Amino acid sequence: MFEPITADLYRIPIPVPLPLKYVNCYLLRADHGWVVIDTGMRYGPAEQTWLASFERLGIEWSQIKQIIVTHYHPDHYGMAGWMAERSGASVWMSPTEIQSVQRAWFQPLPDAADRLADFFELHGMPNDLNRQIWQHTMDASQYVDPKPVLQPLDMTQPLQLGQRSWQLLHAPGHADGQLCLYDAADQLLIVADHVLADITPNISLWPEAKRDPLADYLASLEQFAALDVRLALAGHRKPIVAFRERCHEIVQHHDQRLDLMQDYARTGKTAFEVCEFAFGVSTLSAHQLRFAITETLAHLVYLEGQGRLRREQRARQIIFLDQH
């Protein structure tokens, strides 16, 4: 139900209705009460897990004073409103990620789903699969209700919580404004979904997000690898002990995938065709396919930015192909 990391910090694995099964949320004891870092999706078993964890730890709702959300994805942001309503706690995010929340969750969802479907059609997604993703996008709103008032964190200043002084680190790639919390004195890093232990974080290109998320991610990984980290607490799976080595492994993974995609696309392929080659689509759910195609696009756009591929528009579709 929960795992003590230190005397003042607990890891709470919260169930999610996704293949990952759990998201790691964190409870930090501060002078004024407790701080929640990430919340999970609004989902019955998740609510039950939080309630049981609070009961086991002897925590009352009134003792939850602050909620920090690392990024806008529903498995991290989704229950922030539910928790804020019960506790009266303020909810904080990076300024960039507040904008992501507004784009993702505050505009009419049919409009957002339509824009995403148009984007995928342009990149070769077949109509039947595109329709499945459209419906999946429409269904996502149930996991982010109610929506809290959000306060912007000052990313330039350390955040004092209890005995710890946390640096707030911008960690782009998985989400444009994702933040991580670093206690340099204890060499402890709450790394969210920036680095994961035995899977690679999804790096996706979305219609309204930054132009080259993979370039941002790889540059950020280099900066994070320079940190002195004794233990990194990730948003999924187990904590990471050999953090610098894991950063280097992820860079190597992307280098290999970039080479693979470049070789396949040389003769002219849509992003969907490259996605089908790299990931396969027949066994993927709509949720998985949406992330597979957007991750493929992130790699193709990176290759384009590096001068290794170019794009052409043919009829109503974009083709990526060799520069020569």
From TrEMBL:
Coiled coil stretches, renumbered: none
InterPro entries per the UniProt record, alphabetical: B_lactamase-like_C (IPR048933), Metallo-B-lactamas (IPR001279), RibonucZ/Hydroxyglut_hydro (IPR036866), Sec-metab_biosynth-thioest (IPR050662), WH-like_DNA-bd_sf (IPR036388)
Domain Metallo-beta-lactamase: from-to ranges: 22-236
Name of this chain's protein: Metallo-beta-lactamase domain-containing protein
Organism in which the protein naturally occurs: Herpetosiphon geysericola
